[in-house]
Amino acid sequence: MQHNELKTPYFMIDEAKLIENLEKAKQLKQISGVKLVLALKCFSTWGVFNIIKPYLDGTTSSGPFEVKLGYETFGGETHAYSVGYSEDDVKQVADICDKMIFNSQSQLAHYRHLVEGKASLGLRLNPGVSYAGQDLANPARAYSRLGVQVDHLNSEVFDSIDGVMFHMNCENKDVDAFIALLESISTQFGQYLDKLDWVSLGGGVFFTWPGYDIEKLGLALKAFAEKHRVQLYLEPGEAIITQTTDLVVTVVDIVENIKKTAIVDSATEAHRLDTLIYNEPASISEANDDGAYHYVIGSCSCLAGDQFCEASFSEPLQIGQQLHIADSAGYTMVKLNWFNGLRMPSVYCQRVGGEVQLLNQFDYDDFKRSLSRWSVS
Ligand SMILES: Cc1ncc(COP(=O)(O)O)c(C=O)c1O
Questions:
Q1: Could you report the per-residue pLDDT of 43-82, keeping only the tens digit for each?
Q2: Cβ < 6 A, ligand 1 pocket
Q3: pLDDT tens profile 243-271
Q4: Domains along the chain?
Q5: What CA–CA distances, in Å, run from 117 to 70, 80, 122, 164, 212?
Q6: Which of 59, 99, 167, 169 is the pocket-test mutation for ligand 1 (most atoms within 8 Å of CB)?
Q7: In sequence order, which residues have a C-beta less than 8 Å from that of residue 322 and are 6 or more positions away?
């Protein structure tokens, strides 16, 4: 099937690009001895897990259904973490996870009896330091509820848990900044870490970014693991899936109000939510910064400020023309919603052998079913 025969909007995951990232992950593992678990919150399109599985050690999760999905479709190690578990969640998850990580000492105390003997017990700690471009995504922001602060720790807790998880990075492309965080963790928590079997350093380390010094990162992780005699984990999401996937859309109209807006058959609010939440414009593969033709790439939702970006092109855009919105995998497919009753993008994978495989498609019944299953009489 040729790409231009596919009905937009759709996501196209490129296997070759995914493997490029995974090869870097493999290199990092070889240098450092760290284990890598895929953060399903970022990407859980399980239709491509057969490509990822040979490279990573398992999955980590943020809610009970992600635990089940990781267990069923990925295998390996299944880490279960949630900011807030209900008793039912704990009961369901404890049977299928290998590690259960609680966000607070109170949840740990309350539910540990349901987990003991079934899974390795862990607690999330908050190191109070972080690397994050935006406050919204900063786990060490003021009054953060994510993990236990060092001055709130009951040191006895370390006698009855097996590991801890820290997560304090968001798209950190600076290896030295990450190493500084590692040192801070070692200084603040070192005496406790020495008692544990494993430590997860969370996600947000952008080791697949072009030019990232993987060897330096790997050696720093190895030294940390040796110093505290723990098995280290990272929980990459974005680093695994970055730059692998386009959201392909069609220009359905062009309107003008001082600026020209090309309206496409997709919307950030429904199909690429983080564009809106983090106010980070998307990038269009066909654009040319030096081009003479400037457009707002506008969504077809009703929200006045819903646009993908502004971009310049060498030629005027045409109604019916397709555009590729680059880097649209992480935190996108997991957040798709039916706002405005727009057509949901299909999901395809471009295999290395050239074949295009369909992973998902949606129709009106999926939309209707998402809204009500039963009607009042
Ligand atoms: C606890 C935890 N682990 C891992 C991740 C994955 O981060 P990323 O996709 O930036 O690598 C996140 C992201 O929020 C997280 O909160």
A1: 999 999 999 999 999 999 999 999 999 999 999 999 999 9
A2: 39, 41-42, 167, 170, 202-204, 235-239
A3: 999 999 999 999 999 999 999 999 999 99
A4: 3-11+243-371 (2.40.37.10), 15-241 (3.20.20.10)
A5: 21, 15, 13, 18, 41
A6: 167
A7: 4, 8, 248, 249, 250, 251
